[in-house]
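Narrative summary of target 7.
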Amino acid sequence: MAFDENLKVWMDGEFVALKDAKISVLSHVVHYGTAVFEGIRCYETENGPAVFRLKEHVQRLFDSAKIYKMEIPFTQEEICDAIIETIKENNLKGCYIRPITFRGFGELGVNPLNCPVNTTIAVWEWGAYIGEEEMEQGANIGISTWRKPAPGTLPVLAKAAANYMNSQLANLEAGEHGYDEAIQLDYHGHVAEGSGENIFIVENGKIITPDLGSSILRGITRDSIMTIAKDLGYEVSEETISRERLYLADEVFFTGSAAEVTPIRAIDNRQIGIGSRGPVTKELQEKYFDAVYGRSEDIHNWLTYVE
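Modeled conformation, tokenized:
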């Protein structure tokens, strides 16, 4: 994916070209990974570009910053407005949005408190995260040997840059073994999530996802799919999921702002269900895309229109 260096990036209240959006090599974030971020999508609808669940994403950004004692020098409303303005500044109809808050240049040392807190927002066009074909045929997934952090090590409810060093190891391992993506287990060996996605299984028409105690991120797309499924009359539960339940499930799928709703056709070279997108996943996927593209009534007030 190539970036246009003339894209405009919002940096602490000002727009600069991507090629000029620079930070010091001695910034705290470069040495210690002190950053929290969000992944958000804007979709092209009949009524113009619309950001999906903007306020919830920005709330989570602030929640992540709070866990790491990072005082964002803007209000949530100001960040929401800045995201909208960044999309308009780049004249994009549909895009991926990356706000990131980090500790900048001040002094070096593990203690971050004498370093400023900076916030940047970038937007760019980005298609299907795992692949267009996989959205229909399903992805080929492997369970990683790299587990999620144990309780009391890193706070997984914070969407922090440092957490994704763990995700990188899992994703790299998956690629080395010919898989599209990885599934990670938690400290106890229970199913957690993908390297950058939440996961669901379907058993006898019931939709199940790991609970928040399974070292997972509180996914906003995860919450959206649970809400849509309940609206459709499905029984939905959050619980501990053993590894072997993945193999025996009728359907398995990933969710995430980047991954959206991606079916899984095989795990560890074991066919899942019919070996392609199952009927429940298909229905949820269609209803999700109806929601994000504004094709259905916005009963949950999930869309924020750019104009």
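DSSP finds eight helices and 17 strands in the chain.
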